Amino acid sequence: MPPIFLLTGFAPFRGERINPSWEVARRLDGDVIGGLQVKSVRAPVGCATASRRVTGAIVRYRPSAVLGLGEAGGRTALSLEKVAINLADERRSAAGHFGTGALPVIRDAPEAYFARLPFAAILRALHRRGIPAGVSLSAGAYACNALMYTSLHMLRRQPQVPVGFIHLPYETRQAVRQHSRPSMSIDMMERAIRAVIAVVARGRSLP
Question: Quick count: other Cβ atoms within 10 Å of Cβ 76?
Fold first, then answer.
């Protein structure tokens, strides 16, 4: 059994029928890329629920690498998130309900973690393929950030395990409902994430 590459995506939210993060993740489920077998897990949209889902997946699959995917409507390129903060604002509920406000993702844990991805190598690989991508310094304070923070916290004692998060633009069909906001095809996003996984896999094999 090859080592597991845990890939997460989110369920649709805010009235959308799809979430590109899950559409990409489910396409890759079961594939072996660079010697790592992709296991895709769908997370609910919510700080606490996303945190619990990724915690359970890490405990169950003991992955050799973890990459979360999320939707960031309005962005023009893939965003490689650099930092996850220990702040969860459930007030941004997809149902429009107000929760308890800003709380820690994990109590008595560090204020922030940095992603553990080979950013420069990933960006080179994506740009060679003509795929727009850049580094982002804010994953927000909602479900995507909570999932990223939890993943890094869970694997904090295993620094050799790559962990990160990438925000994806709207999928092209969504742009029709979103007043022609920036979008990208699912096929291009799938090619991008395959390239990311391949880069991560190569990095793991280096001495």
Answer: 13
pLDDT tens for each residue of 173-196: 777 676 767 789 999 999 999 999
pLDDT digits (tens, 9 = 90+) for 64-94: 999 999 998 878 899 999 999 999 998 754 4
Per the residue annotation, which of 16, 90, 167, 171 is the catalytic one?
167
- Sign of the torsion angle spanned by Cα atoms 80, 5, 56, 157: negative
Residue 81 is among the residues annotated as catalytic for this protein: yes
Active site residue 167: yes
Strands 183-184 and 170-171: parallel
16, 23, 81, 90: which one is catalytic? 81
Is the separation of the CB atoms in 73 and 169 below 8 Å?
Answer: yes
Q: What is the CATH number of domain 4-205?
A: 3.40.630.20
pTM above 0.85, yes or no: yes
Among 71, 144, 153, 171, the active-site one is: 144
- H helices within the chain, ranges in order? 20-28, 47-61, 119-128, 143-154, 172-177, 186-205
Domain boundaries, the chain: 4-205
